[in-house]
Amino acid sequence: MLSPFLAYLLSVVVLCRIARSQYSSDQCSWRGSGLTHEGHTRDVEQVYLRCAQGFLEWLYPTGAIIVNLRPNTLSPAASLLSVCIKPSKESSGTHIYLDRLGKLRLLLREEDQAEGKVHCFSIQDGALFIEAVPQRDISRKITAFQYELVNHRPGADPQSLSAPCQPCTDAEVLLAVCTSDFVARGNILGVAEEDDQTSVTVSLSRLYRQKTQVFVSGGGRAKRWTGFVKMPSQCGVKPGEGEFLFTGTVRFGEAWLSCAPRYKDFLRVYQDAQQQGTNPCHLDTD
């Protein structure tokens, strides 16, 4: 049996053919079938996805596909992006590699995909080379995952969804208020450890912004919101009294914490910047 790399070279260099695309694509997501490779199972099909997020579904995988993930606008900052993929727990039938200039590096084995864990890598690490595992019966095999392009805070690990644990600087806090997927004021109710991450239960007295409905309203006259924010377990967060300003990103439907200063400390920084005219954006602190 040929190694993945030799099979790749044989497909691309010797056969020199790319299967015609027989799939549904909206530039954000792709759904295709390995049955289009029938009779030429060594074909390598090129897939191009140019959105910040989407999904891929490859039914009855045979041969291989190369998935090129790029933002829909080109800028110098694009080279700093990371790609995060979250396989479906039913995903099977393939191994997933990173392909950089013809060199393959294993990212996920077939059995790893069933864990459904998020895996991230730098966009400069290359495209995804997804190779079907040879088998007699492909009728129940589907490779499926969601993907998102992530713009990390400086110093963050490109292989992680989360921000680094060190406290944000004043400038980072002010910028986070403007650019985060969620901004809220509230209290920590509880902390629970989950595998290699921490889940923090929060109660919010003010919800300035949220990209998706990760926090839900409790109703009643004293309107409050509740929800969970995630962070790495090594951050060692503990329940604390007092109010915090929570900011962060929403990844695959979960809120990940970025900057979370105590609200009184944020208010001091915000008011100082307001007096100096250096606030990058406005937040209603009344």
Record keyword descriptors for this entry.
286 residues; 39% strand
Task: List the topology elements.
Elements: H1 4-15, E1 24-25, E2 30-33, E3 44-49, E4 53-59, E5 64-69, E6 82-87, E7 94-100, E8 103-108, H2 110-113, E9 119-122, E10 127-132, E11 142-150, H3 170-179, E12 182-194, E13 197-210, E14 216-217, E15 225-232, E16 244-251, E17 254-257, H4 263-276
Parallel strand pairs: 2-4, 3-5, 15-17
Antiparallel strand pairs: 1-2, 4-11, 5-10, 6-9, 6-11, 7-8, 7-10, 12-13, 12-16, 13-15, 14-15, 16-17
Signal peptide: 1-21
GO molecular function: hormone activity
GO biological process, one term: positive regulation of brown fat cell differentiation
Secondary-structure element pattern, one letter each: HEEEEEEEEHEEEHEEEEEEH
Give me the number of helical elements: 4
Distance between the termini: 68 Å
Helix fraction, binned, reads 10-25%
Strand content: 35-45%
- Poorly predicted regions: 4-24
The largest sheet has its strands arranged as 1-2-4-11-6-9
Shape: elongated
Largest sheet composition: 6 strands, mixed
Label the structural class: mainly beta
**What is the mean pLDDT?**
83
Radius of gyration: 22 Å
Strand tally is 17
GO cellular component, one term: extracellular space
Signal peptide: 1-21
GO molecular function: hormone activity
Protein name: Meteorin-like protein
